[in-house]
What does this fold into?
Amino acid sequence: MMREAIRLAAIGAVGAAGLAMGGPATAEDAQITTADDAQIIELTQTPCQFLEVEEKDHGYSSTRKADCVAINGETAEDRLAKSKTLNLKPGKYVFRVKNKNVPYDLGFWIRGATLLSRATLPSTSGGGLSTGKSRDYAITLKEGEYLFSCPLNTTPDYKVVVDGS
It folds into this structure.
């Protein structure tokens, strides 16, 4: 009950600050909580996708990276056009990523959206995320456009916009 109260309080502050994925921030949409002075954003990976930004589990099946390369080669463009953009304010974040039912190790990578911004914006990445496990990826985001994905699960590149206004 206390955790949910903290989560809802953070969502209220987040919504007021314009910190949302797509539309209005809700506890179910954003899955944002606070820890120390960082905002926690919970993301779930299933085969070939992140659930929260696509809002739909497509039910893909994958036993290896090549399966997702093929699936996303056919479907990623349409899915990205329908996915939510994660809109954030500059600051400290923890992306808490969970491997839900992917039978091989996953990872996470957030970086600048262009080659130039990759040289100037912060980035974090890592792997070793086995089935059923979660891992935290801490980062202090500056203003700019970012992409996040999993190179090991070959997900699409989902958009993050960090705006201080």
